[in-house]
Amino acid sequence: MEFKKASSRVFVAGLGAVSAIGNNVAECLSSLVNYKAGMDSITYLQTLHKGQLPVAEVKLSNSQLADITGLQPQISRTALLSMMAAKEALIDCGLINIASLRTGFISANTVGGMDKTEQFYADFIVDNNSGDLQDVINHECGKVTELVADALGINTFISTISTACSSSANAIFFAARLIKQGMVDIVVAGGVDALTKFTLNGFNSLMILDKEFCRPFDETRQGLNLGEGAGYVVLVSEKVSSLLQKKPYAELTGYCNKNDAYHQTASSPDGTGPYLAMKGALALAALEPKDIDYINLHGTGTQNNDFAEATAIGRLFADPYPAMSSTKSFTGHTLGASGGIEAVFSVLSISQNIIYPNLRLQTPMREFSFSAETTLTEDKEIKHVLSNSFGFGGNCTSLIFSKIKA
Amino acid sequence: MKIFIRSASCISPQQTFKQELFLPELVNYTANYLKVIQPDYATILDPKLLRRMSYIVKMGVAAAITSLQEGGITEPGAIITGTAYGCLEDTGIFLNALIKQDEETLSPTAFIQSTHNTVGAQIALMLKCNAYNNTFVHTGFSFENALLDGMMLLQEGEINNVLAGAVDEITNTSLAILNRFKLYKEVPVSNLSLFDSPSKGTIAGEGAAFFVLSSQRPENAYAQIDGLATFYKPASEADVKKNIADFVASHALDLNDIDLVIAGRNGDMQNDGLFDSLQNSIFANNAVINYKHLCGEYPTASSFAMWLAAKILQAGQLPKMPGNHTGKQIKKILVYNTYLGIHHSLILLTDVE
Predict the structure, then answer these.
(1) Which domains does chain B have, with CATH numbers?
(2) What is the CATH number of domain A252-402?
(3) φ/ψ (deg, to 5) at A187
């Protein structure tokens, strides 16, 4: 612990993402601008819901992921996906020698190596002496982070955050503060989740999975589609930023974490948590609501989330409302990865000056005078993007990415 | 900047919870795992809410709420939880149901309560507290990360009080699985004699410890936290020693200034060799006590050690424990913990003058 206040600004110098719409950032971006969603019937996950529920799987098997990442194919898919995106982000930032810098890895996930644990468990409950122990050795959320940190050669500061669907936004938030406090020079921050029977059945038991492709912010929305993937940003201090061979993509100017304190799973009808999180992020960034050019919505497609989020937006923003869309209409809800993947998309929105469409939106929610974008916008300068991530347990986090001022 | 421990609450296998006396007597178990002494939760938590709470949630929320009460804080500026394993009981219940019922007609209750942030969420819900809320789940760093986050928030200066702590539970399932990894003694032992005969394995433990940290000096503060450091997979014993020496030096101290070391010895020969070596070298002139015979070994056991350190500094001396050095005034404590040799942490605490 060394509190030095070494950097007052935090820059995004690298991006990495893997999701149902692409195995890297370029592929994801291409799908976003070409309106290509990633949902499909279940291919890789071994579940009885195959053929019944659409999901947004990464289009690679574990052995393909292992080939690309150099990790072992029998380890958790969560670690394989994490490695894909974290490695891409680190390479993208262009720093050749991270060993000379104090480097951190802050990764979020919600169920760790559950994909392997549930295989183990099927044998274990029949006989407590059976089940391959190698399948539970990485059950803990933190173990997944360590597998990837070790493979990347990062050991200065490693941590794992788990706050349900806001997990990786909180990882990015925490990482930025570590840089500002002068504890690390550079951090790979974001999160990952692989599809598991545990989460698919959990959300199914809550009856919030849409049997069709999800329709966030639509009046007729019926729930979410689960997805999987990983998304990381490389955050650097001002000092490291000056050493980079290429210009950073954006600056992380705002972040705020608030709790809805209303219900374990449901959002408050007045959107208290989302409202406070967005408001706090704006205050930290010293921005007015009218300065936001685009909101990357949490927008899961559930009745409850979208209503609460829109209510909060209605309370905080005024006409003309900022453009907004849910990229979960492409990637599905990737849970612990969503804040990371959407941070990558938010940064790309700034660097490419684009606003993504919200797919399958036909009937805007009738309670609100604003709605999400249905088409791609490419002719507008994007200076500030607000990215929302809200989760079970009332955990609400908003991040703001901004174009770097000269 | 100074960071004070305003209040502390601990539920453990010992008599630590709401006790007028500091560890009045040590509880002896003959087992290879130690479960907490469960308080009468109905006297602490709303019975309506209590009915729906799992074992770990009750334990975590009760420790959190009582530490807030003791500190006279109704709305903390942040709620930060560390838990390595999260809500194992509900995770197990949902996994069981999902396999036995072939993914059909599942009740969502266990799934809802299985998420790692359930304890932090329930605290917020009970307090109707909209403040910052975070949960760290990084195995043997979970508590240290939560503590660090709290200290950073106070340092950032927007809030004056933080609730931070850690909780982990043992379940029959986790014990059955971890036993197969040969982490624990093969035959039950007396926890109070854990360090008497070196053998393989430790004893499993569980518990909850929550603290209110303040940036302004409260009346009756337990102690002051001077520093915190973690190091991951040190390359060698020499590396461990260097990390400890550097940490102490970074606070303009040398080891002779430390009145007491609270060490993470756990009774497992493999783990304890390091502590033997440290006590024969850098800690040779220090009074050293152990704590894992009291709470067992678990990834967030260092939260018990910090509770113990806070209580010792408040009392100014050690409780009656085997091998203690009573009489000597204790003003500075170094907590050095390791979990499975992978995660190492140092917490430096000073009494409040």
Answers:
(1) 3-214 (3.40.47.10), 225-350 (3.40.47.10)
(2) 3.40.47.10
(3) -135, 135
Chain B CA closest to residue A46: B103
Distance CA A366, CA A357 (A): 19
Copy the structure tokens of residue B263.
Answer: 């060490």
Nearest to B7 by CA among B76, B55, B53: B76
Cβ separation B111–A393 shorter than 8 A? no
Q: Which residue of A has its CA nearest to B102?
A: A48
Domain boundaries, chain A: 10-243, 252-402
pTM: 0.97
Q: What is the pLDDT of residues B241-287, one digit of tens each?
A: 999 999 999 999 999 999 999 999 999 999 999 999 999 999 999 99
**Is A165 in the active site?**
yes
* A276 to chain B: closest CA residue: B130
Pairs across A and B, CB distance < 8 A: 182
Best to test chain A binding among B136, B156, B158, B348 (most A CBs inside 10 Å): B136
Whole-angstrom distance, CA of residue B240 vs CA of residue B132: 34
Active site residue A333: yes
Q: In which element (H, E) is residue B214 found?
A: strand B207-214
Please state the separation of Cα A70 from the chain's center in Å.
Answer: 24
CATH code of domain A10-243: 3.40.47.10
Query: Which residue out of A165, A214, A256, A396 is catalytically annotated?
Result: A165
**A320 preceded by cis ω (within 30°)?**
yes
Residues of chain B contacting residue A116, judged by C-beta atoms under 8 Å apart: none
Partner-chain contact B155 A181, CB within 8 Å: yes
Q: Which residues contact B124 (CB under 8 A, 6 or more apart)?
A: A259, A261, A393, A394, B79, B130, B131, B133
Three-class HEC string of A285-326: HCCCHHHCCEEECCCCCCHHHHHHHHHHHHHHCCCCCCEEEC
* ipTM at complex level: 0.97
CB A198 within 8 A of CB A206: no
Task: Write down the residue that tokens 């928030």 correspond to.
Answer: B153
User: Phi-psi region for residue A93, left (φ > 0), alpha (ψ -120 to 50) or beta?
Assistant: alpha
Give A-chain residues touching B298 at CB under 8 angstroms: none
Say which of B132, B148, B232 has its CB closest to residue A155.
B232
Which of chain B's residues have a Cβ under 8 Å away from the Cβ of A197? 98, 103
- B289 to chain A nearest CA, in Å? 24
Question: Considering A141, A333, A384, A396, which one is annotated as catalytic?
Answer: A333
A53-111: pLDDT as tens digits: 999 999 999 999 999 999 999 999 999 999 999 999 999 999 877 778 999 999 999 99
Contact B139/A143, CB-based, under 8 Å? Answer: yes
Q: Residue A301 half-sphere exposure, CB side, CA atoms within 13 Å?
A: 31
CA atoms within 13 A on the CB side of B195: 18
